[in-house]
Specification:
Layout (H helix, E strand, L loop, with lengths): L2 E7 L16 E2 L2 E2 H10 L5 E6 L4 H10 L6 E6 L4 H12 L5 E6 L7 H14 L1 E7 L6 E2 L5 E3 L7 E10 H13 L1 H6 L7 H9 L4 E4 L10 H34 L1
Parallel strand pairs: 1-4, 1-6, 4-5, 7-11
Antiparallel strand pairs: 2-3, 6-10, 7-10, 8-9
Length: about 260
Amino acid sequence: MKTTAIVLAAGQGKRMGSHVAKQYLLLKGRPVLYYSLKCFEESAIDQIILVTAKGQETYCKKEIVDRYGFGKVTKIVEGGKERYHSVAKGLDAAGPDCDYVFIHDGARPFVTPEMIEDGLEEVKKHDACVFGMPIKDTIKISDEDGFAEATPKRELVWQIQTPQIFSYPIIKEAYDRLLHKEEELQNQGISITDDAMVAELLLKKKVKLVRGSYENIKLTTPEDLEIAETFLKSINNNKNSNKNLQKNVDTKNQLC
């Protein structure tokens, strides 16, 4: 069984208000992109395909992949105009010998080892699954004039995250169909917003929802970066507390 993680880092991040793309902004001294790559690097994933914006391949190779020793990054490929173009190029790079593929936004630094393990187990059972969390707030569906038209049941509405995980043959076929029907879908006013939608729309494939984490945010605005710094500080404090606890246990065992 061969597993591949496609990490998308081709976005411009205009809403971040920075001349530096959001995936390269520093979060506690390291690029945002570093954190998701590190998690996949230390997981059971076999290879990582990094998709970057045009002209950023050399920078990513030198300043991120080589600098931090990400040996599982086997290819760095140029992305496309839209997110789904970048995913399609990542799928091409993964190759037909891939069995399962994780598609992840490089601007989501808080993917966890547990999520990767859970995702792999779920995709083996369902062929297609995505991480997300039930919403906390009431959602209103608007009509074209800006009036509330419907209120869906809150317990049935999820905010969707990445990674999104698929059997490779299924998602590859879905994306091949998408590219073939791209103009037709655009004429119908259909906008592709995530990978699950591609499988749902083009293959009528049901996608399993898997609980992720409310901390698994995508960094989009300057406020998100501040929130991420708080999350990371909390994570590091918990790790230090666990280390200190283990040291105390080891010391007591030695005294005994």
